[in-house]
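Reply to dn_fold:

You asked what the input looked like. This is it:
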Amino acid sequence: MARAVPLKVIDPSGGNDVESSLYEIRRKIYPRAVQGWFARWRIALVLATQLLFYGLPWLTWNARPAVLFDLAARKFYIFGIVFWPQDFIFLTGLLVISALSLFLFTAVGGRLFCGYACPQTVYTEIFMWIERKVEGDRAQRIKLDGGALSANKAGRKALKHALWIAIGLWTGFTFVGYFTPIRTLLGELYAFTLGPWETFWILFYGFATYGNAGWMREQVCKYMCPYARFQSAMFDPDTLIITYDAQRGEPRGSRSKSADYQAKGLGACVDCGICVQVCPTGIDIRRGLQYECIGCAACVDGCNQVMDKMGYARGLIRYSTENALKRGLTPPQLLKRVFRPRVLVYMVLLSIMVCTLLATLYLRSPLKVDVIRDRAALMRETRDGKVENVYQLQIMNTDERMRSYVIKVSGLQGLQVVPAAPVAIAGATAQSIAVTVQIDPAGITPGSHSIMFHIEDTEQPSIRADEKSRFFVK
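and this is what came back:
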């Protein structure tokens, strides 16, 4: 819980000093359960994201985990593709695509990621669901927290935190399972032989999940996440945001269901406060768009429930845009303004990046070669009078099956590799091969000559690599 830092302010009139604070003490928020179309979407995305997160490490592919980031071996397995540190360009492309996607989705629909798929939102939803099951809904939780300590209160609190800690630790275990094969990790856990780093990251990630989703919650979104601070730079008057229709809702006021509120000079808002009670960040959307709003639309579902009970039209709080509210745009007109220049530019750039990345992955060769000269000696002569240079070829087979490669060399007449037998490289491995290149020096000028190594797959000649080097003749 945040604490206020006291700050003494001197009264210039000579009166008593006044103590203020640099920031407000956190007021605990008790979000109320809500049902509706957007709530169902959130539940669906919670299930989908967690099924993906918790399930992927257990999937197998070619007798190994389908997704494994093996940092020790510097290999990253993603289903049938093996990435190496040399493939860093693909990570760069993925990050650029993620950034462009964030810009596009934010320009069109505001903080959709925050409201439905952000890990902070997802785990907060899970932890709040457990809290409601153990302690009850909003009114019951407020009563429980306000009451004296009792066996019932202590038991409920202990059960809640035990479940939170269990989910946090299982989340940390699953997270580490992406870097260490999860079945191996489970066996080490049962045998109490976990390594220090695995233990540290399980506890660290578990504690972070427990602290962020169980205790800090909206504080992470309001004060720690930078997205809320720079989102305004990506919004424009045609961005979909959670809006309160003040023209229809004001002046607000309570009334009976049968009352003619228009005759009383009231708006459609009954001032029930449901929109505030269901908000996970505790804001009042009727004050306009605020940076604390994560776009979860819980207030939309809550308000629609009240409108249904009162017999009023839905949509007093809804997804809309600043221009739509000002100009009274219809849904087709609002949809037409989605495809504005800014959005189209993002879409074109994103399409180019996605197509480029997919094409590069498709054309990616499973063969990578580095040629290093033996620096111990520039050259040496054989018994039969030939000149030879020695090279180290670092051959990397990024495919998951064994491949056989033949090594050839060109650049000088009569240049040959000794011996010329094919080289077998196991799947997803790199092997250093010593290669000797010989030539009859007759008719060749002394000095350094440019040559080219050609490494070619014996079964698929299209898989090949060409690397330059130098050949020395005395």
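Confidence is low (pLDDT under 50) at residues 1-5.
Hope that clears it up.
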